[in-house]
Write a structure and sequence with these properties.
This protein is α+β, with helices and mostly antiparallel strands. The relative contact order is 0.08. The protein has 13 helices and 27 strands. Helices cover 29% and strands 29% of the residues. Strands 13-21-20-14 form a four-stranded antiparallel sheet. It has a three-stranded mixed sheet with strand order 2-1-6. Among the domains are: 153 residues, no CATH class; 121 residues, no CATH class.
């Protein structure tokens, strides 16, 4: 009987197993098997072995919150902007992988499930987390947090101090390309997210280099050449013009190859631009004009440039000689007509310093000295010819009789050359710098004739026509000293009655008051 029971049990087990294997029907796992993730399964970097779907989902949600708070760095030049992933619209794209992980190895017959479970346990399986970012939110972050770093380039500032120079560093300009930066960010996040602990993304921007860079002007240390001229502080308009024009040149930095125009730097010669009326040469005469006297500024700068041995591109002498430099050492300017121009033909930037103080104008040019230490230069002027000034020009004006104003001083004309002696290694070489021609200009006087008539007017005009001021002075003196003519009293009718006699002792009538003589002093004009 026992043998029969055992046989029957064996038959049942075989039949049951054959049914499972032969028919291939799926057999559902137990409840615990259906909702527990097999050993060896990872979702992202997280081991999900033995976790239920609910536990796995909760753990991934916590992981996602941490990811959302992760900082991403945007680099803009030397600037860094940090943002959280959630600000860029971070989203989890494949949350269904939790359910897939739970179901893994739960389908099929018991042998298939066993086999899959062992394979997973030995080799492991990883479900990759997939994320996405919102480009619209990326654009918002760029516009709100990164555009603030858009800057214009800032030149380095070179300031002259007592013991040399002080440099304020230059700043590179930045112009962010928002659209290209957004595309770059999206691509970098797609490629790098979850693969590296730190994410730094360089944004796309256009850089604008400053014209004056710190590294360049740090080379400016040596005085290459300087020059000083003197002027009279008594003439206010001229002094104002010298200060204004010098101030517009002071602080100029020229890079190698750059050209400079003194006239363009000073113009326009207007009241609004800081100029006053001063004496200037115009058409061979001295006239009062806005900006009069600024030629002394260009002349002083010219001589400093010569001593720095920079290339002179344009220079003109005055029409008449000036008194503040030797002949052929001047450099005249006239708006639209004459200019002093030069070029920085050295290999390094140069700095122009100019100042006006105590009746002197000084310009100094600084740079990086490359000339031999034993090299010396000396400039000297040679007068090659002279032309005597003609007779004085005397003009009658409607000013009060006897007034004399000298409008222009006499200058002989001349031709001159400026020479340069260069001594190096004990050998001196002389080269010509320029040649100049100056017009002869006579004395010019204006004589007042107002109030004269008849013979007196004729006499003074005749003296003026001689172009001889001695004759003019004599004529004025003769007219002033001429005795006054007396007029006969008008006839009166005899009275019918004898008038009463005046009391004795009455004083005679007072004589007429004497005329005040007008001034005959002359006024010499200042040198333009």
């Amino acid at each position: 009987m026992k043998k029969l029971k055992v046989a029957m049990m064996g038959i049942c087990m075989v039949v049951s197993l054959s049914v499972l294997l032969g028919q291939g029907k799926e057999v559902l796992a137990t409840e615990s098997e259906n909702y527990t993730i097999n050993s060896g399964v990872k979702i992202g970097e997280t081991d999900m072995s033995g976790k239920s779907q609910e536990e796995a989902a909760k753990e991934l949600e916590e992981h996602f919150v941490k990811l959302g708070n992760k900082e991403i760095s945007f680099l803009i030049g030397k600037n860094e902007v940090k943002v959280k992933a959630t600000e860029l619209g971070l989203e989890w794209k494949n949350p269904t992988i939790v359910e897939e992980a739970v179901k893994l190895g739960k389908d099929g017959n018991i042998i298939e499930r066993y086999k899959i479970g062992k394979d997973i346990e030995i080799e492991g399986i990883v479900y990759e987390l997939e994320y996405s970012f919102d480009k619209a939110k990326v654009l918002d972050v760029l516009n709100q947090k990164c555009l603030t770093y858009d800057t214009e380039p800032k030149d380095a500032i070179l300031e002259r101090v007592a013991d040399g120079f002080e440099v304020t560093d230059s700043v590179e300009g930045i112009k962010l390309n928002v659209e290209e930066s957004a595309t770059n960010i999206m691509q970098n996040l797609t490629d790098s997210w979850g693969k590296t602990e730190e994410i730094k993304i360089t944004l796309v921007y256009n850089s604008a280099e400053p014209k004056v860079k710190s590294e360049d002007i740090n080379l400016i240390k040596d005085e290459l050449g300087s020059f000083t001229t003197n002027y009279s502080t008594a003439v206010e308009g001229r002094t104002q013009n010298l200060e204004t024009a010098t101030g517009k040149i002071n602080g100029t930095i020229l890079y190698p190859g750059e050209e400079y125009s003194a006239s363009l730097a000073m113009e326009p010669f207007t009241v609004d631009n800081g100029y006053a009326y001063g004496a200037a040469f115009e058409g061979g005469e001295v006239v009062q004009t806005l900006g009069g006297g600024v030629c002394q500024v260009s002349t002083t700068l010219y001589n400093a440039v010569l001593r720095a041995e920079l290339e002179v591109l344009a220079r003109s002498n005055h029409t008449m000689r000036v008194g503040y430099v030797e002949q052929a050492a001047d450099a005249a300017i006239a708006e639209g007509l004459m200019d002093f121009q030069f070029k920085n033909d050295s290999e390094y930037p140069v700095y122009i310093e100019g100042y006006v103080a105590y009746g002197q104008i000084t310009f100094a040019i600084y740079g990086h000295e490359t000339r031999p230490a034993d090299r010396t230069i000396h400039f000297w002027s040679e007068i090659t010819g002279t032309t005597p000034a003609g007779a004085a020009q005397i003009k009658a004006t409607g000013a009060p009789f006897g007034s004399i104003v000298q409008k222009q001083n006499r200058h002989d004309g001349s031709t001159a050359r400026l020479w340069k002696d260069i001594t190096e290694n004990g050998v001196t070489t002389t080269v010509q710098v320029n040649s100049s021609t100056y017009l002869a200009t006579p004395d010019v006087f204006e004589v007042g004739t107002a109030g004269l008539s008849g013979e007196d007017a004729a006499a003074l005009h005749a003296a003026i026509g001689t172009s001889n001021m001695d004759a003019v002075h004599a004529a004025i003196a003769a007219i002033k000293n001429k005795p006054a003519e007396t007029e006969a009293p008008p006839e009166t009718e005899k009275p019918t009655e004898k008038p009463p006699e005046a009391p004795a002792g009455n004083p005679p009538a007072n004589p007429p008051a004497a005329e005040t003589e007008p001034s005959t002093e002359t006024e010499a004009p200042p040198t333009p």
